[in-house]
Amino acid sequence: MLKYLVKRIFWMIPMMIGISLISFFIMHLAPGDITTTEANFNPKASQESRQKLRELYNLDKPVIVQYGLWLKRIATLDFGTSFASHQRPVFWQTKDKEGNVTLGMIQEALPITLLINVLSLLLIILIALPLGVVAALKQNQLPDRTITLFVFIGFAIPGFWLALMLMYWTGVQHNWLPISGLNSIGYERMPWLAQQIDTLKHLALPIFISAITGLAGIALFVRNGMLDVLNQDYITTARSKGLSENRVIYGHALRNALLPLVTIFGLSIPGLIGGSVIAESIFAIPGMGKLFIDAVNMRDFPVIMGILTIGALLTLLGNLLADIMYAWADPRVRRGVAQ
Amino acid sequence: MKKVLLSNPLILIGFAIIASILLLAFLAPLIAPYDPDAIDVKSILLAPSVQHWMGTDGLGRDVFSRMLYGARISLLVGFVAVGISTIIGIILGAIAGFYRGWVDTFIMRLVDVMLSIPTFFLILAVIAFLSPSIWNIMIVIGLTSWMGVTRLVRAEFLSLRNREFVLATQTLGAKDARLIFTHLLPNSLTPIIVSSILGIASAVLLESGLSFLGLGVQAPQASWGNILTDGKEYIQFAWWLSLFPGLAILITVLGYNLLGDGLRDAYNPRSNQR
Q1: Using an 8 Å Cβ cutoff, are A58 and A65 in contact?
Q2: CATH architecture of residue range(s) B2-273
Q3: pLDDT at position A35, please?
Q4: Beta strands, E only, B34-150
Q5: What is the distance in angstroms between the CA of the first residue and the CA of the last residue of chain B?
Q6: Where are the domains of chain B?
Q7: Min distance B172 CA to chain A CA atoms (Å)
Q8: Cα separation of B197 and B75, whole Å?
Q9: To probe the interface with A, which of B120, B206, B211 has the most A CB atoms within 10 Å?
Q10: Is the pTM of the predicted complex or chain greater than 0.90?
Q11: What is the C-alpha radius of gyration for chain B, rounded to an integer number of angstroms?
Q12: Closest to A18 (Cβ–Cβ): which among B113, B208, B232?
């Protein structure tokens, strides 16, 4: 297990170098250089901040040197200072003379997005798992057909449209749920429990929207995984041993069908993070997605680069976590790799 | 082929949906009752009626006409973006699967790296550095979605590479290019087509999402995504502005998915048991 772990962690180094190369390349996509042409989009990019940016990216030096310095910079997660707010994009806390602490922008936004994603993953598991199992057990019968139809619609429905419709229905028409922001006015003066309920009410729609878009894939995956496993010899063995059908399905089949799900969750992290852009910008939730889209609209390059890199790192970490969990759950994996 | 199409009603439904949308988009200038960009201040935000089947928007433009022209954009973006990603995928996948060794390792690592960057962030970042236009959108979607095809082509090539007919051709002295283009590629075509059809579905979704965020097709050019953006502004008084484009996207994507998925099942003997 340890050997597998070490190997798997070393594996991340070339990946990180690749990510840094790609983000470096994107930065140089802009016609001219990023401090001259495109930054004009941003009214807040003063001459001074452009000069700073030029120094930050060492644009007067040869490309190889630029890349080396860029690599060194992102290794310490230093992405410069936002054009718009003069905050640090990533995790750097700054203290002013009066001792007020300003958090890094991602430091503020990340927990919110993580909270939404974790809760929506829970919701996905809660809904998709039973759906997939039922569909597999009633293969080609009415429940299966209904669930498959639902899966197809789930794949095709544009998340932002669903968000808009739900926002209209629950927020505007019926006034059941708040439609924007993270907290109501007067949040600070509420008791603790009311605060939690208030936040949860604000997050209910975004969580539901991100769950819906991921739900279909997971349900289909569970269904097909179950069908595969149910055809295996050890299921026949379990049945012929005289185990009850419940034991066979929940004790033998489901546990094996669920194994690859761990990997799927790891792989779905970039989609979830990316999907947060739409839900957060519609509901004005100050998470990573909103931060990113605002930065894109303002051409706030330091923040864009910071989020892009952090997003990729988070994905790598998520995949690492998924692989470790998979190896932990399935001895075949770690032995196979250790050989 | 005919048998395959008829074997599964879902393929037929998908095919019918796509064919009708193609037809509507193609004939848009003939069908559209109004100029999609004509502003009419006397008929702002009219509800659907006989004159305006899908109502009018905040500038008095006919939503049905804009939807028809928007269909052209959606289909164009889907086809071109997937064309780009499929070509890249075939080239890289063929090189990786045919030559194996360090080239293969390199290409597969590149795929892993690309997959680890959240695609939507990547696209948005690139568009921030370039500028939003329909051509940039197509190129960027194409350049960020070739990873699946690459993996697929590589896997096909790896499994075909040691088949007898390939080895026989090679023994007869066929050049690499001949092997790749006349033997390996034609035999991998079905899964490539299936994945392209499914790819168009996600490209349509991506484009509408980008246009919705204001970073895709730019006004006044109509796209389903940016009609929806207007819809968001007027959601309290004009439900038709949000309902129709959303339904159009849903139906189009559903059509491609039904077609792609149905074809995959029809051609893949393993899934026949389903």
Answers
A1: yes
A2: Orthogonal Bundle (1.10)
A3: 58
A4: none
A5: 20
A6: 2-273
A7: 38
A8: 12
A9: B120
A10: no
A11: 22
A12: B113
